[in-house]
């Protein structure tokens, strides 16, 4: 499974998530409105990555710890979003956690409660 398909599977497993193109890239939305993950296939450079919502200090901490894996994405970085490179060796368990955390940052409380009740993460 390629990186995009793996990312897609993680995102679409979450409650009320839809996918559509935004700025020419696959993007995932909660209830069709709020973006929580964006794929970036060489969107602003020659790297394959994704951008995701992140909680307070997550971006700063991960970029400082592993700049070869994480970055501050353009346009969204000032909002605390995290960039994650997919053209390096990827730990998909970590990516699954980041995607779920991004969802939790953006989704309404009712959907987060539904997620907690279902534990719908794919293998």
From TrEMBL:
Organism: Lentzea roselyniae
Top-level taxon of origin: Bacteria
The UniProt record lists the keyword DNA-binding: yes
Gene3D superfamilies documented for this protein: 3.90.1150.30
The keyword DNA-binding is assigned to this record: yes
InterPro entries xrefs: YjbR-like_sf (IPR038056), YjbR/MT2646/Rv2570-like (IPR058532)
Keywords recorded for this protein, A-Z: DNA-binding
Signal peptide annotation: none
Pfam families cross-referenced by the UniProt entry: YjbR
Protein name, per record: MmcQ/YjbR family DNA-binding protein
Gene Ontology molecular-function annotations: DNA binding
